[in-house]
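Below is how a single chain appears once it has passed through the pipeline. First comes the sequence as given, then the structure the pipeline wrote out for it. We keep one example in the README because the format questions we get most often are answered faster by looking than by reading.
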Amino acid sequence: MEVVAVRRGAVRSVVVAGSLVLGVAGLACGARASAGEAPGARGARGVWAGPEADVAYHGRVWLSEGRLRVWLVPANDGPSALPDATVRVRLSADLADRQGLAEGCARIGTREVVCETGPLPRHGRGRHIGLALELRERPDEVSVRVDTWWNGGASDRNRANNELVVLALDTGDSYAF
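Resulting structure:
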């Protein structure tokens, strides 16, 4: 596998096995575990020999008058600790042009934001991540997708608990995931 990194200002581009992955300086940057593995991560028989972690997310979303609030806590059920991972939040509505994002977070598209989780201890939780997102318009509802964009090079056998979709209605009510 060939990994090529190009740094331009604060944005870093990484090409992994022919796929372009964008990141921001200070953010953990890489491909999903199924697509990108660290060189030498496979043992002699081609079996994954790297760390294994079970990353999951729990939190809440609120939508009110074109403002979407997302609060989430990443967790790791092990068996290995992770030094960092990256969570992605994708929306069914466009973000406004200007966003005031939390430290460790970056906008990567018209409808996507990624945030570093910080260290994820074995059988522990990462830092709380809070996003106050302004939407371009005032939709009646927004679908919010939360998933792992990069998991520190670890394999994750249970991806069902880190790929979530929540429908938030413009009521100001809290929707848990």
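Residues 61 and 70 are 5 Å apart (CA to CA).

See the next section for the split statistics.
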